[in-house]
TrEMBL record:
Domain of life of the native organism: Bacteria
Gene3D superfamilies (UniProt xref): Lipid/polyisoprenoid-binding, YceI-like (2.40.128.110)
Keywords: Signal
Pfam families cross-referenced by the UniProt entry: YceI
Keyword Signal: yes
Family matches, as SUPFAM superfamilies: YceI-like
Ranges annotated as spanning the membrane: none
Lineage: Bacteria, Pseudomonadati, Bacteroidota, Chitinophagia, Chitinophagales
Signal peptide: 1-23
Keyword Nucleus: no
Domain Lipid/polyisoprenoid-binding YceI-like: start-end pairs: 26-182
Annotated protein name in UniProt: Polyisoprenoid-binding protein YceI
Length: 183
């Protein structure tokens, strides 16, 4: 009888503890609104553009970002300055993104460390042209509630560290990531 009471009390205690653990929720990225903007410098000028997203999800637990994965549409990259389609075609060639072989890239968040209520240091892996590269960044969480998620990250990326070794004067590309997701 005592064993049964202890077992029931133990089960009740575990159920009580687990009832306070926040549930993880998956939000789907709004690909029409989300994108990755870039600015790349050259000797006497710069170029601007954007990569659309094909798909993605973010995982929130208790309205806090816990993870996510995104598919980046390299084949439909856009150049938004006067170089337009000519530069876009060049970027799709083998010396840059080689979209004939690799028409998409992925980024997966592997760790989230909140440094304030609305700022999180993200660790993650970018898979580009068949190779995986660690890419860490700081995300500004603009909204995370039971209906929607919006975050941005602004950072510099060394393109040569990603295997893009085109002989240009600047290795750094400025990135601005805008992620919108809904439950």
């Amino acid at each position: 009888m005592k064993k049964t009471l202890f077992a029931l009390a133990g089960m009740a205690l575990l159920m009580g503890i687990y009832s306070f653990v926040p549930k993880a929720d998956t939000y789907n990225v709004n690909v029409d609104k989300s994108r990755i903007d870039w600015i790349a410098s050259k000797k006497n000028d710069f170029h601007t553009g954007a990569f659309p997203l094909k798909s993605g999800q973010v995982v929130l637990e208790g309205n806090k970002l816990k993870g996510g994965k995104f598919v980046i549409d390299l084949a439909n990259l856009k150049v938004t300055d006067a170089a337009g389609d000519r530069l876009a075609g060049h970027l799709k060639n083998a010396d840059f993104f080689d979209v004939a072989k690799f028409n998409e890239a992925t980024y997966e968040i592997t760790g989230v460390n909140y440094t304030s209520d609305n700022t999180a240091a993200l660790t993650g892996n970018l898979v580009l042209k068949g190779a995986s590269f660690p890419v860490n960044l700081t995300a500004n969480i603009r909204n995370a509630d039971d209906k929607a998620f919006f975050a941005e990250a602004f950072f510099s990326l060394d393109r040569t560290a990603l295997g893009i070794t085109y002989n240009g004067p600047s290795k750094d590309v400025q990135m601005a990531v805008h992620i919108f997701a809904n439950k």
